[in-house]
Structure formats: C-alpha cells, structure tokens
Inverse folding.
C-alpha cells in the first residue's frame, strides 16, 4: 500500500499576513522565511494528524481490492475521483461505481458492493484517487488554523533542532488543538 500526493493545495489555510500578525512582525524583511515556516508547519501538521487542511488530490495504491471497509488515510475526504484496477495490458480499467459504496467525511470510507475486476498485477494493482481537505481557508476549523500558527511560530523562533543544553520539541498545544480532528485507529 502506498499513498501519493497527486495535486497539492493551491493555497495555505493561513495567510502570510495573518501569521505575521500572530508573530507580531511588521516588516517584510523575513517574509520568505515566514512563508517557509508556514508551509512547513502546514505539511507537518497534516502529516502528524493524517489531515488535509486545503483541498488536495491523493492516490492510494493497493495490491488487491479491499475485503472490508477501507478507511481512506487522509481526512476529511471530499470526493472519490476514480477507482481503477490494472488490466493485462498494464492499463488502468475503471471499476463501475455500482460495484462499491463510498462515504465522504472523516474518515472517508470505501466498501465493495460487488465483485471487482481482478488486477493483472499482484503488486499495486488497485488505484483509488480521492480529494481530501476543505474547500477554502474559510472552511478550515479555527483550532487547526491556530495550530498552524503556533507551529509556524515555533519553526520561525526555533531555527535549530537542538542545542547543547536544550532539545526543541513540538509545542504540546499543537497536539491538543488537532486531537479532535485526528482519526484514532485501533
């Protein structure tokens, strides 16, 4: 099983100006550094919580069709874009929508509703393309935006990973803010 980002988000959930206000920075001298901290914070938060903050396209590749309900690994899922299996020619063949059930949300779920075509390859034979995230920055929950600001501020202010007498870790408030949005897997 592998997960591949097909199309990254077109924008960040927090603007550069909003982050600069949070940081109390009024000059433009470090805009590039602050923008890099913002992008890094968003990607780190998404990875930490298995979240997509802004709309982005993903591909989940499986060796075989799922036997049980499949929980898509990034949330919230907006849409299921394609379900395909590899055929003998190495091409992708679409699975008819009547052969599966799909539920969007957090987590997005996919379940077979009938027999799928058998993939020609036993490795990476099934592709599931989906879109996850929020439609725009206004739809991103405020606690997630706050977590982005806190983590970006941490990255901006802590420019080294460790020092002789001190180790720098992600602020605990970040985990507290994203906890309600994380899917807990047993």
């Amino acid at each position: 099983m592998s997960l591949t980002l097909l199309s990254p988000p077109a924008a960040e959930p927090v603007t550069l100006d909003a982050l600069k206000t949070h940081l109390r920075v009024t000059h433009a001298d470090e805009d590039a550094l602050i923008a890099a901290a913002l992008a890094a914070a968003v990607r780190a938060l998404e990875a930490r919580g298995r979240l997509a903050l802004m709309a982005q396209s993903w591909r989940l590749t499986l060796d075989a069709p799922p036997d049980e309900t499949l929980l898509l690994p990034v949330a919230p899922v907006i849409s299921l874009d394609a379900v395909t299996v590899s055929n003998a020619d190495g091409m992708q063949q679409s699975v008819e929508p009547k052969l599966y059930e799909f539920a969007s949300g957090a987590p997005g779920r996919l379940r077979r509703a009938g027999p799928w075509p058998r993939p020609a390859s036993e490795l990476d034979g099934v592709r599931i393309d989906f879109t996850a995230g929020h439609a725009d920055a206004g739809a991103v929950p405020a606690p997630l935006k706050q977590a982005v600001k806190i983590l970006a501020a941490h990255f901006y202010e802590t420019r080294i990973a460790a020092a002789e007498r001190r180790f720098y870790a992600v602020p605990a408030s970040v985990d507290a803010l994203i906890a309600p949005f994380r899917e807990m897997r047993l």
